[in-house]
Amino acid sequence: MSVASEYLQLQKQSADELVRQHAPLVRRIAYHLMGRLPPSVDVGDLIQAGMIGLLEAARNYVTDRAASFETYAGIRIRGAMLDELRKSDWTPRSVHRKVREMAEVVRQIEIETGADADDAEVMKRLGMSPEEYHAALADAASARLLSLTAPDEGEGAAALEVADPDGLGPAESIEQDGLREALIAAIGSLPEREQLVMSLYYEQELNLKEIGAVLGVTESRVCQIHGQAVVRLRARLAGWRDGGGDLESGGGKPKKTARPSSGAPRR
């Protein structure tokens, strides 16, 4: 066997060993994500996607990386699962249409008033009862949670969870950077309680029940607040999604720079 062949064989053995050692990590990440997803999502699909991510991580990992393999693999596993979720949209098209309608109404109100759109005004313009509105907010919270800037056809979604830059070309990397900046600005412009829910959900990775305990409200109320934030963000990112590349070109409220508060939430 040549030196090159021996090296490739050792490299393959090393990758196989990394996969065996870190297979439990795939299950941990999958079940952690399942705590924040609808019951219709199959954990087996997430685990399968995660194993592919783990295999790719094992093949591509370089030992002189600053991050440990577990950290590196965790990013790739999670990214593979999120990619699977984006491809497997479990939400009916009617829900997507309703979310778009709500976001457009919110955008128009905020253009006209320069203030956060009020729930009562949104309901009035949509001709919805409080029960219908709250049900629509719950749908908005679960309708492709990972996508706020998807085109109307539901394709090419840009995710809250920004992709791993190692897998992006120069153009895609610039686009992701632009989305990240627009998203940070849009989240910073949300009402304080919506900012807090988004921070606890996406940064601290708490589930709705845990967030409810922090805020002192029910899980269903957290779901409504989350839905309000998703609809408002979609409205305020309209300019970015439509090619304006600027949050304010979407006509939403002016940018704020405040980060979500870690202090006591407002009741």
Shape by Cα distribution: elongated
Count of structural domains: 2
Helix proportion range = 55-70%
Q: How many runs of DSSP E, i.e. beta strands?
A: 0
Biggest sheet character: none
Quickly count the helices.
Answer: 11
Function: Sigma factors are initiation factors that promote the attachment of RNA polymerase to specific initiation sites and are then released. This sigma factor controls the expression of flagella-related genes.
GO biological process, one term: DNA-templated transcription initiation
DNA-binding region: 208-227
Motif (Interaction with polymerase core subunit RpoC): 45-48
Structural overview:
There is one protein chain. By secondary structure, the protein is mainly alpha-helical. It has 2 domains: 3-87, Rna Polymerase Sigma Factor, Chain: A; 93-250, Butyryl-CoA Dehydrogenase, subunit A, domain 3, CATH 1.20.140. The protein is 64% helix and 0% strand. It has 11 helices and no strands. Helix 2 crosses helix 3 (69-87) and helix 9 (208-215) packs across helix 10 (219-236). The longest helix is centred in the N-terminal third of the chain and has 32 residues, at 3-34. It starts with a helix and ends in a 26-residue tail after the last helix. Mean pLDDT is 74; it is low at 6-10, 144-170, 243-252 and 254-267. Residues 208-227 bind DNA. Pfam families: Sigma70_r2, Sigma70_r3, Sigma70_r4. Its main location: cytoplasm.
Layout of helices and strands, plus pairs?
Blueprint lengths: L2 H32 L8 H18 L8 H19 L5 H21 L5 H8 L3 H13 L27 H19 L3 H12 L4 H8 L3 H18 L1 H4 L26
